[in-house]
Design the sequence.
C-alpha cells in the first residue's frame, strides 16, 4: 500500500499563474516532508521541506502547506515559470533523518 | 559542491547477465542509497548503507545485492538481470547526522535489459 500518494500524474499551467501540486500520506508517524524536483537526465534535487510542527514553509516562489489532520500537503509555485517544468516528487520520513518514502511524482508543464 | 557520480549514463544488458552499477561520492558521506525510478511508481529504495561493509534492505531488494568495500563507493549488483529490472537507477548519499534534505543524488543510470 502506497504511503505517499501523488494522485495527479501531470499538471499544465500558464506562465505567471500559480501551480499547486498535491500530496497525501497515510502513515501518521511521518513528521518530516519534502519536495524534490527532477529534470530529465538529472538526479532529483531538494526543493523545500516542512516538519510537522509547522503548517507552512516558504522559500521564494515556493511554499509548502501541511494539513496534518487531513494528512495532506501541497506545494505552491507563484508565479510559475517555464524553467519550473519538471517532475516533482513528494517525500516523507519519520524523523528528519529517517529513510525517505517517495510519491510517484507529478509532471509539471509551464507553458509560455 | 557534493558530487555523486554514477559510472554509466546508459547501459544495455541481456537477460541473465550479471550487472554492476557503480556509484562514487566525493564528500566523505557515511550514508549511501540505491533507488530505482519507474514511470508511475516514483522512486523506490532498493538498498542502503550507513557505513563501510554495512548494508540494509530497502523496500524492493529482491534480485539485487550491494557492496560497500570503501566509504566512497557503493555498488549495486544484479545477479541475473531480468527484463523487469529495466529502469532508471539513482544513487544518493548523505552525511550521517544531517537531515534528509541533505540527500544528494547522482544523474542516474538508465538500464535496459533485453
Sequence:
Amino acid at each position: 500500500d502506497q504511503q505517499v500518494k501523488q494522485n495527479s500524474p501531470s499538471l499544465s499551467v500558464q506562465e505567471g499563474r500559480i501551480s499547486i501540486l498535491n500530496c497525501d500520506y497515510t502513515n501518521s508517524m511521518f513528521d518530516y516532508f519534502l519536495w524534490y524536483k527532477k529534470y530529465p537526465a538529472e538526479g532529483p534535487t531538494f526543493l523545500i521541506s516542512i516538519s510537522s510542527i509547522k503548517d507552512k514553509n516558504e522559500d521564494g516562489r515556493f511554499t509548502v502547506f501541511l494539513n496534518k489532520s487531513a494528512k495532506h500537503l501541497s506545494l505552491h509555485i507563484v508565479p510559475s515559470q517555464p524553467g519550473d517544468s519538471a517532475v516533482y516528487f513528494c517525500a516523507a520520513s519519520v524523523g528528519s533523518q529517517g529513510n525517505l518514502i517517495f510519491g510517484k511524482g507529478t509532471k509539471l508543464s509551464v507553458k509560455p | 559542491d557534493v558530487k555523486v557520480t554514477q559510472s554509466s549514463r546508459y547501459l544495455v544488458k541481456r537477460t541473465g547477465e550479471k550487472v554492476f552499477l557503480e556509484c562514487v561520492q566525493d564528500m566523505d558521506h557515511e550514508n549511501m542509497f540505491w533507488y530505482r525510478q519507474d514511470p508511475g511508481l516514483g522512486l523506490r529504495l532498493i538498498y542502503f548503507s550507513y557505513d563501510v561493509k554495512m548494508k540494509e534492505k530497502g523496500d524492493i531488494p529482491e534480485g539485487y545485492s550491494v557492496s560497500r568495500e570503501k566509504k566512497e563507493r557503493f555498488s549495486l549488483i544484479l545477479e541475473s538481470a531480468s527484463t523487469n529490472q529495466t529502469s532508471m537507477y539513482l544513487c544518493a548519499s548523505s552525511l550521517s547526522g544531517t537531515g534528509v534534505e541533505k540527500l544528494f543524488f547522482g544523474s542516474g543510470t538508465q538500464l535496459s535489459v533485453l
